[in-house]
Structure formats: structure tokens, C-alpha cells
Amino acid sequence: MLAVIQAIEKLKQERQAVILAHNYQQDAVQDIADFTGDSLALSRYAASTTARVVVLAGVRFMAESASILAPDKTILLPDSQAGCPLAASIDVAGLRQAKARYPDAAVVCYVNTPADVKAESDICCTSSNAVAVVRSLPQQRILFVPDRNLASFVARFTSQEIIPWEGGCITHYRVTLDELEQARAAHPEAEVLVHPECRPEVTAAADFVGSTTAIIKYARESRAREFLIGTEMGILHRLLLDSPEKKFYLLSPGLVCPNMKLTSLEKIARCLREMQPEVKVPETIRQRAYGALERMLAI
Ligand code: 13P
């Protein structure tokens, strides 16, 4: 392991690269990263870094967002197969049909979408700013794509009519209210922290709902000693690093995203050596998708 870490450090210098890792990445990948964060923080970092090369240790839509925001940089995705089934649940043709059905609606797309869907949307959002993004819009009708659970979470906090796309995250979907109640009975002192991609009955029963970084911050600052976590298990690494004296339990054994686990140190070293797989959003799509992301970052 030491040899591959040294190789990555050397290649990073040679390539003038930074490594950005999502909070769900394997522990060793998070440890080697220059920055770890949620989707919003990764987008912000990619937009502002002066590095020439960005290794996006995450899934494809995150690398696409980096390419949209930083077109002059080389964006590397260590495993080209690292996709997101939620992002794949929507395509441009489907979105255009929905837009034709609701011509007066503003289109808000979750960042977990392909670049060409962002290009067809009015504004993007992430799990940490979805409510603020929707509230910032003057339209009374919002076509919210593609996560129906995030849409229903947003609908609790706004008077606007939210029309959801019927997509969902298979990993977060695995957490059931039954599991939450059983875990609470076993750990009555614990606070329940969940991601808004969880089912509505799960988010409604939780003590806190937020993005991965918001969950990490909440756990760090809370006076509670025990937490029940309703998001992908990779988050446990940062939770335990920040608060080694606290106890964290996953709400469901199914909270593992196979796509997030595709990235390894060896693949990071290889992509820096070979400068591929590169993710580059075509310029015609990029320019329109940039508008949706930029409007979000301005909020
Ligand atoms: P966050 O933006 O909260 O990190 O979530 C990203 C994601 O893909 C959740 O499944």
C-alpha cells in the first residue's frame, strides 16, 4: 500500500493534480485525497482549484460537474464504470416530454443527473441546498428530477407545487421505517441522521436530514453520544475520524453503493499515469449545463 501511495504522490506533483473524494469513497481513497466532501463541496472545489488535473474519486456525474465547471482542466474518473443508477433513471427525451406536459413549471435537476439533462434544466441543486434552490424560484410549479424522495422532502418545506420524477437511489431506498424503529428501540439514546434520498417515512421519522457533509457536521457538533446513520457506509470513516469517542450504527446492512466502491488507490495511480479515463462534456452541452450549475452556486 505504501508503494502505491508514494506513486500517487509523485504523479500528483508531476501532473499538478488534486484528488477530490466523495464522502462515500473507500477509507484509503478518502485518506489520500486533497479534499473530501459532498456533491456541492466537490463542485465548488473543482470550480475554484488552480490545479491542471482533477481526479474525481466518485461517480460519473460528479466528474461531469467538474468538467462543466472547469473546462480548461483535465478531469479523470479512475473507473469509467462508476456510474449512478439514479442519474441514469432520466434522459433528455423523457425530460422534454415532462416539460411539454408542464410548460409553466421550472425544472430543478438534482446534481445526480447526466450533463445533457442539466443542460435542459433551469437550475441544479444538491441534497444540501435543494430547499433553498426551490424557494429561490418565482414559479409556483416545479418539475423536480430525478429523485422522488428528495422531491417529497423539499415539498415539506415549500408551498410550491412539486412534480416529482419517479427515480430513486437503490441504496438509500433499502432503509425501511421498520429498520429505523428497531434500531431506535435497540439504541434509545441515539440520534437518527439520514440522507434525503431515503424514503419519506424514514426522513419524517429522523432527527436530522441532510447531505453527507451536513450529517458529518451535525454528528460532530451534537451532544449525543450515539447515532443511527441512514446513508452510504463510506461516511462512517469521516464520522469516526471526527468523533472517535462517539458510536455510529448503520440503519441498514444494505447501505453500500457498489459504484462508489469501484475506485481504488491502484486505479487512481493508473489514471494519473495514463491520464485517462478522462471525462469531458461536449462544449455545446457544457455551456447550457453550466448555466444550471452556476445559478445553483450563486445561491
Ligand atoms: P451528497 O451530495 O449528500 O454527498 O450526496 C451525494 C449522493 O450521490 C447521495 O447518494
Describe the structure.
The longest helix has 15 residues. The chain is globular, with a radius of gyration of 19 Å. The strands form three sheets. A four-stranded parallel sheet has the order 2-1-3-4, with helices on both faces. It has three domains: 104 residues, NadA-like (Rossmann fold); 83 residues, 3-Layer(aba) Sandwich (Rossmann fold); 76 residues, NadA-like (Rossmann fold), CATH 3.40.50. With 299 residues, it is of the alpha/beta class. 49% of the residues are buried. Helix 8 links the parallel strand 7 and strand 8. It has 15 helices and twelve strands. The protein starts with a helix and ends with a helix. The model has no long low-confidence stretch (mean pLDDT 97). The site of 1,3-dihydroxyacetonephosphate (13P) has 11 residues, from loops. The site of 1,3-dihydroxyacetonephosphate has 11 residues, from loops.
Please provide a brief summary of the model.
The protein is an alpha/beta fold and 299 residues long. Helices cover 44% and strands 16% of the residues.
Shape from CA axes? globular
Low-confidence stretches: none
Q: Can you tell me the CATH class of the largest domain? A: Alpha Beta
CATH architectural arrangement of the largest domain: 3-Layer(aba) Sandwich
The arrangement of helices and strands along the chain is HEHEHEHEHEHEHEHEHHEHEHEHEHH
User: What is the makeup of the main sheet?
Assistant: 4 strands, parallel
Q: Give the terminus-to-terminus CA distance.
A: 42 Å
Helix content: 40-55%
CATH topology of the largest domain: Rossmann fold
Bound molecules: 1,3-dihydroxyacetonephosphate
**Total helix count?**
15
Strand order of the largest sheet: 2-1-3-4
What is the mean pLDDT? 97
According to CATH, the homologous superfamily of the largest domain is: NadA-like
Beta fraction: 15-25%
Structural class comes to: alpha/beta
